[in-house]
């Protein structure tokens, strides 16, 4: 729970002088950082030109004060007397306005969270974060960094990117953050409808596709690097694409990125580039042919939805996984990545993942 303590502010109040012991008693007051949008709420008093600790002390000295807000740029302190500040949820973060809620023996954890054994903080569940579990994480990085969840994390969570009007579901992994595509099994088939690819399908323990709408909301809210990993029985290969973005439905869920860089030294670096030729291509499926080729349906022949152009693609990360170590010659509906790799071999698994740039 180290990260919870990092969001706590402690104030020590000087109490009565006790001549028997020759010292003054002190009282501790804890404040937990929460995310809110407004700086002024009903029942608020303000003080100019103070420090954050001075602001916290003023709130600690008042039994009626439940929370305080501090504006770092102006030094203005707002004391709040509303009993439930989570009525004012935040959808955008601010670097200049900070909000702290008083934590006492009456600490309440929201959204299914529970109080930890020492009674000073909450342990959140189901993708919620914050000192009171007051909001959903914006992405998997926040879930991993919160300290509320298992260190070795690989599970699907509800999150809420800043542009999302409702929660979305994403597969989070402690090593690579947001997994957006996983192909590890011989079944199921990825030759699915556009509706399936927009909504997403699969589960944490098998094959998985995050969903085009979720990709749009994620990549439009935060800058991410896309990682692609193709693994064979004796080697793993990676390629990375900076500032990877998927546009919305009105633009055919087309994708683009800002550049590339080499994989870490512990990964084989022979994996070539497949995605540059597909930039700005709309996403195609067997029932929504957007590849620009009037005589050939790339998605139908490759066995899955992808960002195809008129020549289809030099890689297929959604095709069938062969049950043998080698591919059928010329079989474009099987998994492969041609640039820089041996296209005769069958990948053991393929992953696509997003991590913050």
Automatic annotation (TrEMBL):
Signal sequence segment: 1-22
UniProt key word Signal: yes
Classification via Gene3D superfamilies: Gamma Fibrinogen, chain A, domain 1 (3.90.215.10)
Domain Apple: 37-104
Residues covered by the Fibrinogen C-terminal domain: 131-320
Keywords: Signal
SMART domains, per database record: FBG, PAN_AP
PANTHER family: FIBRINOGEN/TENASCIN/ANGIOPOEITIN
Name the record gives this protein: Fibrinogen C-terminal domain-containing protein
High-level lineage: Eukaryota, Metazoa, Spiralia, Lophotrochozoa, Mollusca
């Amino acid at each position: 729970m180290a990260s919870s303590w990092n969001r706590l502010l402690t104030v020590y109040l000087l109490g009565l002088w006790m001549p028997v012991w020759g010292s003054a008693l002190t009282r501790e007051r804890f404040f937990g950082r929460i995310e809110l949008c407004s700086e002024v709420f009903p029942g608020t008093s303000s003080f100019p030109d103070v420090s954050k600790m001075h602001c916290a002390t003023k709130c600690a000295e008042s039994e009626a004060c439940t929370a305080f807000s501090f504006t770092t740029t102006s030094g203005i302190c707002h004391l709040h007397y509303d009993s439930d500040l989570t009525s004012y949820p935040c959808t955008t973060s601010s670097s200049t306005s900070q909000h702290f809620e008083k934590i006492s023996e009456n600490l309440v954890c929201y959204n299914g969270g529970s109080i930890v054994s020492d009674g000073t903080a909450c342990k959140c569940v189901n993708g919620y974060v914050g000192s009171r579990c007051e909001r959903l994480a914006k992405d998997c990085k926040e879930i991993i960094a919160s300290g509320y969840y298992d260190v070795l994390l690989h599970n699907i969570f509800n999150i809420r990117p800043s542009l999302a009007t409702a929660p979305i579901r994403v597969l989070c992994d402690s090593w690579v953050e947001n997994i957006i595509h996983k192909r590890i099994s011989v079944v199921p088939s990825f030759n699915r409808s556009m509706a399936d690819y927009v909504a997403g399908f699969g589960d944490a323990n098998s094959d998985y596709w995050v969903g085009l709408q979720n990709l749009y909301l994620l990549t439009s809210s935060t800058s991410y690097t896309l990682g692609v990993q193709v693994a064979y029985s004796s080697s793993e290969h990676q390629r990375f694409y900076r500032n990877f973005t998927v546009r919305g439905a009105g633009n055919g869920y087309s994708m683009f990125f800002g550049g590339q860089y080499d994989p870490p030294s512990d990964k084989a670096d022979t994996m070539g580039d497949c995605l540059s030729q597909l930039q700005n291509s709309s996403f195609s499926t067997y029932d929504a042919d957007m590849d620009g080729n009037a005589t050939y349906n790339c998605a139908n022949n490759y066995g899955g939805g992808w960002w195809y152009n008129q020549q289809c693609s030099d890689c297929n990360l959604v095709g069938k996984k062969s049950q043998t170590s080698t591919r059928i010659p010329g079989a474009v509906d099987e998994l492969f990545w041609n640039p820089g790799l041996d296209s005769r071999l069958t990948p053991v698994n393929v992953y696509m993942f997003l991590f913050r740039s």
